[in-house]
Design a protein that fits this description.
single chain; about 450 residues; alpha/beta; Fumarate Reductase Iron-sulfur Protein, Chain B, domain 2; Rossmann fold; 4 domains; about 50% helix
C-alpha cells in the first residue's frame, strides 16, 4: 500500500487536531470491521481502472482511519482517492465480513466538503451540475434546444472540433445528451390515475425525480400505467424538485437533508412511495439513517423509509392482475449499482421481465461492475467513466441482446453513449407497459 503514505502529514502545533471533526465522522468501530481480506478488489471499478491500492475500498478505509489520528489533515491526495470512489457499493455486496462501506463513505464525503477547499474550477463545475440537474424547471427550458440540436446535428458537428476531441469531459458530455423531444418542456403527468378495476390495492405516490421527469418522462408515464393496470391508485406531486440523492452522494449534507425533509412531507401520507430510479430509491430508503439525529424528523423519516418501494419490488410483492401479451425480444438486464448493491434488489427486476411471454432474458459478464455513471461521476471523472462505460457496453453487446434494460437514467445515458451498435436502452417497466398494451416488439427495434 505504498501510495497510502502520501496522506500522512507532520503533526501540527495543535497536536490535538484531526482531519475529521466530531459531527458524524466515519465510525472507528465500522472501520475496524475491515480485515483487509481483498474480496472487494475484483468488484471495485475504481481499482479496476487505476490499479492503485488507495483507490480500493480497503485502501480508502485505511485513509479514513488515518483521518482519526492526531496531527492528521485532509490532503489533496486524500481527496483525490475519495473522489475516485464511484459509491457503487459493489464492495458491500462482495464483503464477507459485512463491512458497512456505504455508511463510511457517506460520512466521509461531508467531512471533505466542510474542511477541504477545492480548486475554484472544480467547485464551479460541481455547483453548475447541481444547479441544473436537480432543478426540473431548468431542464425543461433546455428541451427545445436539445430537440433542435438533434434535428440540425449540432452535437455531431461540435464533436469534430479540436477542443472537444482533446477534452474527455466535453467529449463525454456531448455523447451523454439524450434524445429529448421539445414537448418535454410542457409535458406533465396527471395528478391522479385511478385503476379500472373495482378492487383498489392501495394509494401510492410516484416519485417523479428531477432528471427522470423531464428527460425520461416516458418512463414515468409507463410506470403510472403499469401501476394502474395492476390495481393501484397512483398519485404524483410537483414538489419537491429532487429527493436529495445527487447532493447526498456528493457530500452536500445540509442541502440533501433539506430536500429529504421536503420529500417526506410531500409523500408520507401514501401507502407506498414508488420509485423507478435506482439512485433516488437508495437515498429515500436511507432517510432514516440520514435524519436519525434530528429529533423532529427521525420518527417520520423511519416511517417514510419503510414505505419506499422500487417499482420492481412492488410488482414482485403482489400477484399480477393485468394480462401480459407476448414480446419477442432478447433482452440483457443491466444491474444499476444503487439498485443491486445499495438496495439489494436484484431478483425483482428479472422477475418482472420474465413475466413477459416471449421475452428472452440474458445476463452480461461482470454484472457487478459499475458502468461509470454514478451520479455526477462521469462529469467529474470523465477518463475513468469513459473506460468503465466502454467496458460495460462491450459486455452488454457480447450477449447478443436486441434491447438493454436499465433502471436508472444515469446508467441509460452512460451505456447508450458507449454502444457501437443499434441496441436500445430502455427501462424494464417500459417493456412491461408495452406487453400489457399488446404493442409490437418491432417498434423498439427501429
Amino acid at each position: 500500500m505504498s501510495s497510502l503514505d502520501i496522506t500522512r502529514v507532520e503533526a501540527a502545533p495543535d497536536a490535538g487536531r484531526r482531519a475529521w471533526d466530531e459531527h458524524q465522522p466515519p465510525s472507528l468501530d465500522l472501520i475496524r470491521d475491515c480485515v483487509h481480506c481483498g474480496f472487494c478488489l475484483p468488484t471495485c471499478p475504481s481499482y479496476a481502472v487505476f490499479e492503485d491500492e488507495a483507490d480500493s475500498p480497503r485502501g480508502r478505509i485505511l485513509l479514513m482511519r488515518i483521518g482519526h489520528e492526531e496531527g492528521s489533515a485532509i490532503s489533496p491526495e486524500m481527496v483525490t482517492h475519495f473522489d475516485r470512489c464511484l459509491g457503487c457499493m459493489a464492495c458491500v455486496t462482495a464483503c464477507p465480513s459485512g463491512v458497512q462501506y456505504d455508511r463510511l463513505i457517506e460520512h466521509t464525503r461531508p467531512q471533505l466538503e466542510r474542511h477541504y477547499d477545492r480548486p475554484w474550477h472544480r467547485r464551479a463545475l460541481r455547483r453548475a451540475v447541481f444547479e441544473l440537474f436537480t432543478h426540473p424547471g431548468r431542464l425543461r427550458l433546455l428541451a427545445p434546444l436539445m430537440a433542435l440540436d438533434r434535428r440540425l446535428g449540432l452535437t455531431e458537428q461540435a464533436a469534430r472540433l479540436p477542443v472537444v476531441r482533446e477534452s474527455p469531459r466535453l467529449r463525454l458530455m456531448l455523447k451523454l445528451t439524450p434524445d429529448v423531444p421539445a414537448s418535454a418542456m410542457v409535458r406533465r403527468l396527471p395528478r391522479v390515475l385511478r385503476p379500472r378495476r373495482r378492487v383498489v390495492r392501495g394509494r401510492v405516490a410516484l416519485m417523479q425525480g428531477c432528471v427522470q421527469r423531464v428527460w425520461f418522462a416516458d418512463v414515468n408515464a409507463a410506470t403510472m400505467r403499469v401501476l394502474a393496470a395492476e390495481g393501484w391508485q397512483v398519485h404524483t406531486r410537483v414538489t419537491p424538485r429532487c429527493c436529495g440523492a445527487l447532493t447526498m452522494h456528493s457530500g452536500l449534507e445540509d442541502e440533501a437533508l433539506d430536500l429529504a425533509r421536503r420529500t417526506i412531507a410531500a409523500y408520507e401520507e401514501f401507502d407506498h412511495v414508488v420509485v423507478n430510479v435506482a439512485g433516488c430509491g437508495s437515498a429515500m430508503k436511507d432517510y432514516a439513517h440520514m435524519l436519525a439525529d434530528d429529533p423532529a424528523w427521525a420518527d417520520r423519516a423511519k416511517a417514510f423509509a419503510a414505505k419506499v418501494r422500487d417499482i420492481h419490488e412492488l410488482l414482485a410483492e403482489h400477484e399480477p392482475r393485468a394480462e401480459r401479451h407476448p414480446l419477442a425480444l432478447k433482452v440483457a438486464y443491466h444491474d444499476a449499482c444503487h439498485l443491486a448493491h445499495a438496495q439489494g434488489v436484484r431478483e425483482p427486476p428479472r422477475a418482472v421481465l420474465r413475466s413477459i411471454p416471449g421475452l428472452e432474458l440474458v445476463e452480461p459478464a461482470e454484472w457487478e461492475l459499475c458502468c461509470g455513471s454514478a451520479g455526477i461521476y462521469n462529469v467529474m471523472q470523465p477518463e475513468a467513466a469513459e473506460e468503465l462505460g466502454k467496458r460495460k457496453a462491450r459486455n452488454l453487446a457480447a450477449t447478443g441482446a436486441q434491447i438493454i434494460a436499465a433502471a436508472n437514467p444515469g446508467c441509460s445515458m452512460q451505456i447508450a453513449a458507449h454502444l457501437d451498435g443499434p441496441m436500445r436502452v430502455v427501462h424494464p417497466v417500459e417493456l412491461l407497459d408495452r406487453s400489457l398494451a399488446g404493442a409490437p416488439a418491432w417498434e423498439l427495434l427501429g
